Amino acid sequence: MTGDQEADCTCMVVIQLSPSSAPMRGSRILEDGNKKAIQCARKKELLPEVTIKQENQFYFCVITDLYIYIYYFSQGHDTTAVGISWAIYALGLYPDIQVKVQEEVDSIFGDDHDRPITADDLKQMKYMELVLKETQRLFPSAPFIARDLVENLNVNGYVLPKGTTCIILTYMLHRNEEVFANPEKFDPERFLPENCVGRHPYAYTPFSAGPRNCIGQKFAFIEEKVMLATIVRHFNITSLDQRDKLEIKMEMVLRSKNGLRIRMEERRKK
Ligand code: HEM
């Protein structure tokens, strides 16, 4: 991006990048002489060249509204897509829970099966939200997060030296039986407000935590609710494989090696 183009931008923001972990997970800063650009890991596309300055161990860059758009949405596609897939799978596996979700959705839409979903409808989908949270506990879209230590860190008397890459396995964290009794049980009611009292805020972190947590989490649940409500309004779901038959893969997002096989049947035959 040239200086002229920068001047044309309607919105300019300065973001902070750490040298080894660029702003998007898996993306990196490419250096070619004095030129630097940001490369996304997944599609290897090169974002427009940005002006990157270095200060101490951090890079700063001026970015545009276009870049924010790409950055914001590129973070949210896979995570939300697999979040929806796992939620469909969970509903298909636990018919009692699916019936409760359908009852809630039916109570909102009544006999109108085609009315578009409104923001008010989404607010009423309270049980659905518990299901989505429990889905993210057992099947976190982002199964781990990583950080480079920029200074020594003392963890329970063990010093992790500066420069270490630390990986937090969200997938395992969410299975801590001291926090989540009977952790493998899919139980959305764990997330009823009264059942969350006293739970450590970092015991459940599907959207990470701290200053670099997910800025799209509310939007993600909106997308998920719209998709799921649309599906359960029209279909009954059955999952064809039990959990012990799945081969879980921890890539950038959590996947099942052979996919998630489901059967869908129309609720009201025409
Ligand atoms: C179920 C869906 C989603 C999950 C589970 C999820 C999870 C996460 C996690 C764990 C991080 C932190 C990564 C890290 O610390 O290394 C993150 C960051 C981020 N997410 Fe999401 N995300 C979801 C959906 C979305 C959506 C829909 C958007 C935008 C439309 C979005 C935008 C972002 C952005 C921009 C960041 C980086 C924030 C920063 O670095 O300061 N995410 N997400």
Automatic annotation (TrEMBL):
It comes from the Eukaryota. It holds the Pfam family p450. Keywords: Endoplasmic reticulum, Heme, Iron, Membrane, Metal-binding, Monooxygenase, Oxidoreductase. InterPro entries: Cyt_P450, Cyt_P450_CS, Cyt_P450_E_grp-I, Cyt_P450_sf, Cytochrome_P450_Monoox. Its cofactor is heme. The keyword Iron applies. It is found in: Endoplasmic reticulum membrane. Gene3D superfamilies: Cytochrome P450 (1.10.630.10). Its main location: endoplasmic reticulum. Belongs to the cytochrome P450 family. This is Cytochrome P450 4c3-like.
